[in-house]
């Protein structure tokens, strides 16, 4: 229950920052997909820190090694795809190790698992998301064959309260080319699964589809998406999902991320015994999840979309032999 | 996959506005719970239309009839709890029956299921949520025994563009008394499951936990929730969830709902052949999801919380060596 | 978890012998399937008691009423298919009501749910299987379009120890036309899911695939299924499944059923307080699960096979456009 | 779906004979369990080949390395438990590599995944079951604290047709101390889940609970398990499960295994092009799954039992008002 995402296209991953490898298992990938390795590398590169001054100075070069599920090195066989990404340059942050990291998983991990050592919270690290990018990149390759593309961008970033402060960000994302009919009417709405996927990303604190919170301020007469005689829509306030089901328009949504807990200067905190302590500033972490979170948002969106595409496949199989995908 | 919500505490429901009954099946309810029937009735009453001029004029009296899973009429046995709610006073809206209802499920149901009749979209009706309120009320009764209470309120409503216009709303909700440790670190984060639950409600377009979108605007130095030597928190910007796991503070979140598609005056639309048509105004529907949506938001929150409580139970079983089996 | 069977093609059912209706919900049925109503009726008839002297004298006429999921009364839309079957002629067995029925669910239901009344064990009745036959019949209609047929027969019946004694039976079943590749290598083996399905039928005590227990007595040199140059097999000792995956041969398996607990004469037992009592003989029950269990065995096999067919669909979608099904 | 077993106590495992490691992930293990490492080693030793002349000559020493989920090296924290077992002494069987191994997964893997190389069928190897033994051993440790023990034994072995022939076996297994109430009435019967678990073991071809196939030969008057005034049973023909639910008696069941496909002499076969070929005899494999399969049968039984114990825990939580949360 805890370490897997998805139903028909499913990622299970494990390993934290201090393990030799992060590892992942992708089940349900259709067979015969030729993996586009340069594209995968590019996606990993987008998630990796770059020369941007706000990005972590830690070296992260993430070669993905595939251990099973591929024929001739790059064609999916239908067997689960297993991969690993080596961890290297793992430095233990001795100064902050035994104090509670503010607004982070360290206190909740302590209460849930009994850990009194931040180095044991490795699965709460953003590093885990590298596996999501791998599974998402593969999903994108399958979706691309079905004419579906996914693009995220940074819409806005927070204002630092002082020099060296971290900031939050709002990310926007568009799913282009998704057919009508994805999503289930009651609970497994396309929008509900997207929300689940996005809120499972570290530091996510909000999700909107279409006009989102702005919709709540509007009157229905202006909000409603009216259709033309050719069934095209005059507006897309609903963000491509109506009644939980895609309507053939662009799906767009936003995700709000809070500021990264670690800043460049010292913060007050307590240790695991409740004694007042200092959480030391660091130059090794990013100050904002953007832009590195973009491929992660896209990856989660790709996995959700592919999962529903696979499900829809079943629904339609006997109906429409010329079914345009 | 489509008609069930929850893992250990699970609701499956079916039936639409035009069926004789709405029906639901609750699996996983602990045994020995004495159902508080007046409370259940009260919850149903909160969801039912009242004399408020913006509420639907349709008569909805929702007596819940339990068909199994109860001993002596009101004590849970541990068997699945089956219930039904009669539909009555079902009038067919002949005027709007064969045109696409703007910003509603009618077009997507047509594309997914081939329906060309809005009367067949009964499961997309808010009426379905009556079952959620029943399952949520039972969950609340179990949670109350564990000291957990859930309260939703209307934070703000949209501005009608003209007389008879529908409006959206933002609902806020608080979960009080939830213990630390609910939620799973990777995907099944407490916040992610809450988001999924809320976005599965009709007309929901956004979700936030804690400061949500406001968090994205802030610097980390101001945002971070710092703890005192007694482990209490000075602030609760994270809304009670850190790293996906409850931290013992109040959980609070908001949900944005769009305006109800039906307004009191005519709207332009097309029919299922693409011919321009009129979607006639009606006095029979609410103009805003609030306040009737409040018990639904609470019900979904209660189901998510109980599901995680049941899961946590397992985790803790061996901490209590005297726990009789 | 408790009331549903299947993953992509899923039946949830509820209602016992004393409810007004048995009801079922089939999710995941492909759309556009024209239901063969005479075939469905025939299947129900096979499960219903007939004039055979060993069959129950209770009148069971099982008209299936569909409540949703069908267009024009008989074409699947892809929405969940909801149906109900009325219970009538329900006579309460007052004589045996408060004593433990030997080798039946009455004691275990008492321990699990606290019931001290056999009339509350209605879900343990064979009557529940009527819903399985409906879902199985629909599955068969989909499978038939893919060239797959399923046939069960009674292989042998037990020997009554005296007049009016009930007997057990061994049922054999063949799945003809199943393509290669159904089943997953590790846990979700085709054979494992079949075993699960069969052992979920009331009174089932054993399952074999291929030579089964006879295989355990043999040497590998005689047992092994050797293939000819055209890939056909010289033998089918494995019963069509190797390594958990179908190999294109006929799948055959057997299921062992114990004698029906109720016989035509009185049996010793105790009541729910432990006081010695009599479980009275009855002429109202069958003395053997065969032949009425045949359509149930077939129904469960059909649901398993269709579930794997739907899953396989996904696997193959991008591979083989001319894919022979 | 494919690589995981269990619901609340869940094993996901991966890696084949030719990988550097077999690896497994156990989710849902209660926290605070002190792992009994000598017991684990003993279990691994039971599965490993020994000096018995019929056991494989391949050296298998299986040290289990835990990578996460343990505190102080041996106390479960409630986080997923990750472990790995190194593969060594992996020799490629060049002689048999490109021919179809009779009655094995090699043909079905070829049809499902396109493999034309037996060395790619590593997950079909009995070696995978080492992970099951690890997860099962941990489950046994939890069960032992609840007074439950599980023991398997070889009931009978097949007769070799000639010298160097492999043989099948029937294994019997007993679960002692299981409380009443495990299992769900409809589909998730204790017996059905056990059957699923056992049939997921390589080479399993049959499953019986209680008298199994013998029950099918009997009359109900002799078969029925009658209870005494103290609720004890005079017989246990049902094998401890009635109506799918444990009744407090010993659970006993058998599993039939076919002969191991590889024998000590050459067999006729074809290659992947259909050309007649020889599958060469080998001294490196066992000739019978027994006795090495015993800890695997026990492991699967332990995982099923623990899964139901965890589920039952929830059901009972409110029966014990003093149960501290």
Q: What do you see in this structure?
A:
Four copies of one chain form a homotetramer. With 325 residues, the first copy, chain A, is an alpha+beta fold. The first copy, chain A, has a single domain (2-311), classed as Chorismate synthase, AroC fold, CATH 3.60.150. Chain A is 23% helix and 22% strand. In chain A, strands 1-2-3-7-4 form a five-stranded antiparallel sheet, with helices on one face. In chain A, strand 11 (241-242) and strand 12 (245-246) form a beta hairpin. The two termini of chain A are 31 Å apart. Mean pLDDT of chain A is 91; it is low at 315-325. The interface between B and C is medium-sized, with 29 and 29 residues.
Short account of what is shown:
Chain A is α+β, with helices and mostly antiparallel strands. In chain A, 23% of the residues lie in helices and 22% in strands. The first copy, chain A, is built from six helices and 15 strands.
Task: Annotate the secondary structure layout.
Four copies of one chain form a homotetramer.
Chain A: E1 4-5, E2 10-14, E3 21-27, H1 37-47, E4 65-68, E5 70-71, E6 75-76, E7 81-86, H2 105-113, H3 129-145, E8 149-157, E9 169-176, H4 190-199, E10 204-209, H5 220-223, E11 241-242, E12 245-246, E13 251-257, E14 267-270, E15 276-279, H6 294-316
Antiparallel strand pairs in A: 1-2, 2-3, 3-7, 4-7, 5-6, 8-9, 9-13, 10-13, 11-12, 14-15
Observed structural traits:
6 helices; globular; 22% strand; Chorismate synthase, AroC fold; 4-stranded antiparallel beta sheet; 325 residues; alpha+beta; homotetramer; disordered C terminus; 5-stranded antiparallel beta sheet
